[in-house]
Write a structure and sequence with these properties.
binds flavin mononucleotide
Length: 348
């Protein structure tokens, strides 16, 4: 037992990272049953979809579980920027015979709202975690009022202090190695983001709440390193991507096997920097483009290209989220990944 397991009620100080688009309830159940904190990512689920997954989780495990949300403020659409971006994509639309005028604009991922809170209250999960800051004070107070512990990602010391000041129970220190979206919300420059083992001890020194290390941790040695730098626990995502419980697409799985060391931060797929395996569109346009519409609006313009390419078996236009340490990805059940990570908690 340590400060984290006491707080979360889990057997192990290991969090199976929420991974929108790559897993749902089945992964959370397997991780929970193995003693970790399993997570349900809700950024790409409707409220009804979230209810269905939470019903499934509740029917299969009595262990504490984490429900995860993005909490960005939806941006005002910017017609000029959208037009510039579609101009950049025009040669690809032409190549696939897509009529650009018929590509709808619109959001790609939803933030935590009062409707999410209304549904979540019926389940009162042990833990709720947020990415991109926190929801407004009223919504956060609601989540805390029914007893859920709150975790949130920080990518800088300033963000960690900001989160602690607003009452989070656990700070997740997300280093730049991490797969998927950077949780950055005060920081704006992806190039200035810190690696996990530089960020972690500085966050540990700056806040009193338990700190969970995330980014590049994929095996027992990584867990041991994080704990020896003051982490109260670890959050691991990429190492679960090839598990049978993951919903990682066949194209994404193939890229993880073929090019696990070739990742970059990119904003082309959603508008926010996120780490994924380099593919054709990242190579040809450059991984970061200032014209990509603000998160999550960029999702819409690339969606038909992704659909056409995927239908032909190609990941050239797909977000292939992966951390820098995908070498830890194995095609084994999630419970076995948890057990392998837990070996790093044993005394030598
Ligand atoms: C495929 C994928 C999807 C992700 N989606 C989310 C998400 O929905 N919510 C979230 O808070 N973090 C998300 N993350 C980030 C993880 O929470 C975590 O920070 C990261 O996986 C840790 O680094 P690692 O991938 O090197 O283990 C995602 C990561 C990956 C790889």
């Amino acid at each position: 037992m340590n400060a984290l397991t006491r707080l979360l009620g889990t057997r192990l100080p290991i969090v199976q990272a929420p991974m929108a688009g790559a897993q749902a309830g089945a992964m959370a159940i397997a991780a929970c049953e193995a003693g970790a904190l399993g997570s349900l990512p809700c950024a790409m689920l409707t409220v009804d979809g979230m209810r269905a997954e939470l019903d499934l989780i509740r029917s299969r495990t009595k262990q504490p579980c984490n429900v995860n949300f993005f909490c960005h403020v939806p941006p005002q659409p910017d017609a000029a920027r959208e037009a510039r971006w579609r101009e950049r994509l025009a040669p690809y639309y032409a190549q696939f015979g897509i009529d650009a005028s018929k590509v709808p604009a619109g959001p790609g991922r939803s933030p935590f709202t009062s409707a999410s809170a209304d549904a979540l209250e019926d389940y009162r999960p042990a833990v709720v975690s947020f990415h991109f800051g926190l929801p407004d004070a009223g919504l956060l107070a609601r989540v805390k009022s029914w007893g859920s512990k709150v975790m949130a990602s920080a990518t800088t010391v300033e963000e960690a202090i900001w989160l602690e000041t607003r009452g989070v129970d656990v700070v997740i220190a997300q280093g730049v190695e991490a797969g998927g979206h950077r949780g950055m919300f005060l920081a704006t420059d992806p190039a200035a983001q810190l690696g996990t083992f530089a960020l972690l001890p500085q966050v540990v020194a700056a806040v009193k709440v338990p700190v969970v290390a995330a980014g590049g941790i994929a095996d027992a040695q990584g867990v041991r390193a994080a704990m020896s730098l003051g982490a109260a626990g670890v959050q691991v995502g990429t190492a679960f991507l090839l598990c049978p419980e993951a919903t990682t697409s066949a194209i994404h799985r193939a890229a993880l096997r073929a090019r696990p060391h070739e990742t970059k931060l990119t904003n082309l797929f959603t508008g926010r920097p996120a780490r994924g395996i380099v593919n054709r569109v990242m190579r040809e346009l450059g991984a970061i483009d200032p014209d990509a519409p603000a998160f999550p609006l960029a999702t819409a313009a690339i969606a038909p290209l992704r659909a056409k390419a995927e239908a032909a078996g190609s990941g050239d236009f797909s977000p292939l989220w992966s951390g820098q340490n995908a070498a830890g990805c194995r095609e084994i059940p999630a419970g076995k990944v948890v057990a392998a990570l837990a070996a790093g908690l044993e005394p030598r």
